Amino acid sequence: MKNIDSYTHLRGESLFVDDIITRQDTLYGLVFDSPKAHGIIKNINFAKAEAVEGVIKIFTYKDIKGENQIGGIIPDEPLLAENEVHFQGQPIAFIVAKTEAIAKKVRALIEIEIEELPVITTAREAKEKGSFISAPRSFNLGNTESAFAKCKYVFTGNAFSNGQEHLYLETQGAYAIPMENGNIKITSSTQGPTSVQRIAAQVLGVAMHKIEVDVIRLGGGFGGKEDQATPWAVMAAVAVQHLKKPVKFVLNRHDDLRMTGKRHPYDSTFKIGLDENLKILAYDVEFLQNSGAAADLSPAIAERTLFHATNSYFIPNVSSTVHSCKTNLPPNTAFRGFGGPQGMFVIESAIALAAHKLGIDKHIIQERNLIREGDEFPYGQIATKVEMENTWHTAIAKFQYEKLEEKVARFNKENPILKKGISLMPITFGISFTNTPMNHARALVHIYQDGSVGVSTGAVEMGQSVNTKILQVAYKTLGISPKKVKLETTNTTRVANTSPTAASATADLNGKAALKACKALKERLTGVASGMLQVNKKAITFKKDKVFVNGETTKLTWEEIVSQAMLERVALSENAHYKTPVIYFDKTKEKGHPFAYHVYGTAITEVTVDCLRGTYEIDAVNIVHDFGKSINLGVDIGQVEGALTQGIGWMTMEEIAYDKNGSLLSNSLSSYKVPDIFAAAKKVSVVPLETKGTKMAIKKSKAVGEPPLMYGIGTYFAIQQAVKAFNAKYNVKFHSPFTPEKVLMSLYEESSEA
Ligand code: MTE
Ligand code: HPA
Ligand code: MOS
C-alpha cells in the first residue's frame, strides 16, 4: 500500500498548520528574540514599537498567568526571558499584530540594552569552566584498567561530530483559537501533542482539560518538533488567553533556523585496546555533548549515546561517560538517532584509527568484533535474535565486496587524480524509549453504523507513513477493505497522555494499541455474526467486507453485521492500551533491559574523490537491512533512503557554524546545504534481510525510522580511505562533516606526526 497521503500531497491538497482556513478575526504572532548570546537585560523600550498602527499587544514574561517554564526534563527554560538571556535567538517578547507584516515592523522598533556576559560556544570550553546541564552519566562493563594492561595495541584519539539542522520543509507553527469558558484549541505542528497541552496548561495556569491540541500532520519533524514545537504553540495560547481572539504563529525560515536547537555537536576522546588477534578488549570513551543553553531533551539524548557507544560490537570492557555541557547556543534537541549516531561515530573513529596505525583495512577489525547471540551490551541487556553478522556477511556476498575492493585498488592505481574509497558500516540500534515509562500508547477505534471506521491513536504522521501502517493493521484485523478505514487527526481529547511520536517506536506502540482495539471489536462482531448465522464463533472469519464460515463465503456482509450490532446495542467503539512488556532499566546501577529489540544492518559505501578539487561523489550505497517481516516494504525502503541521505548530509556537507559570539553563521539556505539530487548517492540498493522477525514489533515489522541514518557514517570513512589513497602524509582525523574544503586540506596536508 502506498502512503495514504501521496495523492493529496502530490496535488498540494494535504493540510498543514499554515493551510487551515483562519477565522476572520485572527491575529498574527512574531517573536522578538535576544540579539546577544549571554547577558543581563538592562532595559527594553517598547514605546516606538507599541505606537505602530495595527499592533495589538507585546507580551513579556510579566503577562504569564501560570509558570514561565517550559523545560520538559529539567525546569530550566523560561518561555520568555526574564532578566537574563542565554542564547542568541532566545524569545524575549511575543508580538501580536493584525498582520505578519505589521508584526515585523514592530519587531524592528523594539530597543533593547543588554549588559554582555562571557559566551561559551563549545562543549570543551564549557567542561573546562564547569558549565553543565546535569550530572555526568557512565555505563561500564568489565574492567577497562586491567584490560588495557593486557592489550597488545592501545590507541587514543579524538572525534568531533557537528550539529545538524532539521530543515523540516514545514517550519514550526501553531494556530490557537478561543473556545467557550476559557478553553483553547491549539492546532500545532508537533510530535508531542501532550507536551504542548501540558506545558500550555502550566504556563497559562489552567487545567490540562482546558487545552485541546490537534495535529493534522507534519511537513517533517525529524526530532525537531519533539520538544521544540511547544514554545510557539504556548505563546499563541498565552495571547489567546489575554485577547480572546485566534492567534496564528508560523515561523519564517530565518527565525526558525536562528531560534531552534539542532542535533548536538559532540567532542569526544577515546582509548581503544586490542589483542594480537585484533579483538577489541577495552574501550574507554568520554563524550562532551554541546547541550546549548537549557536541558531540553539533552539528558535523554546523552543516555542514548551511552546505549550506542559500542555500536555493533561486543567489547568485554567498556567505560563510557557523557557530560551534558551547557553553552550559549540554542538548546540542542532530538534529531533522528537521538544521540546514537554521535556515539557510533566515535567507536567507528576509534576502529579506523587502530586500523590506520596497524596498516590494515578497517573492516578486518570491525568483522572480528561484531556482536553475537548472548553477548552483553554495556548496559546489561543480553543480545538475542542477533542479526548483525547475518547482515554483514549477506552484504559482503550480495554486493561482492571482494570484487569491489579489487575494482577500487585497480581504479586508484590507474587514476592519479580521482581516488575511490569504500567502507563497511554496521548498525545496531535499540528500539524503545530509553525511559521505560514512556513506552505506552492508546488507540480509540469507532465503527460507525454504516460500517466505516475511524481510528485515533497518539501517533503523529510526519511523512514516515505511520498512518498508512496503522490503517493496514486496522483493515486487515477487521477484515474490511482499506477504504472503509480513516486515520483521524492526533488529538489530545480523543487520545490522552501520549508519548511523543519518536524513538522510531510509534508504529509499534500505537499500532499494537490499534491492533488490540480492532481485535476486541472483531470479537464482538463475530458474536453478532454467530447469532445471525447460527454457527459457532470459531468458524467465522471476516475478509474484504464479507463473512466466511469455515473458509466458505456467505451472503452476509460487514455492513449487515454492523447494522445488526446496532439493533442489539453492541458497543461499536473500543479504547485499547498497550505497553511494551519485558523492558526495564535501573538507573542506580545503569543496567537493565531497556530495548524491546534491536535493528541491525550493514551498508557498503563507495565514493570517488576528485583530488584536484576536494569534491566527491557517492557512487553507491548497498545495504542489507533487517526489517523483520516488513508490513510495507515500499514505505520502509523509503525510510532507509531518506535516513541514509540525512546521515550522509550530516557526515559530509551540512555544516552548522556559530561565531565566537554565539551568532549562527549558517543562518540561511544559501549557507546551510543539505543533500540535493546531485549530492545524494547515485545508487542506493536496499536488500531486506530474511529473518523471522520479532513479536515485540508490530506484526513482526521492525521499527525503521531512525536506524538507517547511521549508514551515512560509512561515507565519512569511505572518503577518508580515498584521501589516504592520494596522500600518504594525511594525518587521519575524525572531524565531521568532511566537507569538500576539509577534504581538499587533507589531500595536500603533510602529517605533523613523526
Ligand atoms: N520520516 C519522515 N518522512 N519525516 C520525519 O520527520 N522523522 C524520523 C523518522 N522518519 C521523520 C521520518 C524520526 S526522528 C523518527 S523518531 C521516526 O520517523 C518517528 O516515526 P516512527 O516512530 O513512526 O518511526
Ligand atoms: N528516543 C527518542 N525520543 C525520546 C527518547 C528516546 O529514547 N526518550 C525521550 N524522548
Ligand atoms: Mo525522533 S529523533 O526520536 O523524533
Briefly characterize the structure.
The protein is 29% helix and 25% strand. It is an alpha+beta fold and 754 residues long.
Give a description of the structure:
- This protein has an 8-stranded mixed beta sheet, sandwiched between helices.
- The protein folds into 3 domains: 6-117 and 166-259, Aldehyde oxidase/xanthine dehydrogenase, a/b hammerhead (Aldehyde Oxidoreductase, domain 3), CATH 3.90.1170; 340-434 and 596-747, 2-Layer Sandwich (Aldehyde Oxidoreductase, domain 4), CATH 3.30.365.10; 440-579, 2-Layer Sandwich (Aldehyde Oxidoreductase, domain 4).
- The chain is of the alpha+beta class.
- Strand 28, helix 17 (633-652) and strand 29 (684-688) form a beta-alpha-beta unit.
- The model has no long low-confidence stretch (mean pLDDT 98).
- Helices cover 29% and strands 25% of the residues.
CATH level-4 homologous superfamily of the largest domain: Aldehyde oxidase/xanthine dehydrogenase, molybdopterin binding domain
Strand order, biggest sheet? 3-5-1-12-9-10-11-20
Structural class: alpha+beta
Total tally of structural domains = 3
The tally of strands reads: 30
Instruction: Specify the biggest β-sheet.
Output: 8 strands, mixed
Ligands present: ligand MTE, hypoxanthine, dioxothiomolybdenum(VI) ion
Through-space gap between termini: 59 Å
CATH class designation of the largest domain = Alpha Beta
CATH architecture of the largest domain: 2-Layer Sandwich
Indicate the low-confidence ranges by residue numbers: none
Beta-strand residue percentage: 25-35%
Total count of helical runs of at least 4 residues: 19
Shape type: globular
Approximately how much helix is present in the residues? 25-40%
Can you give the mean pLDDT? 98
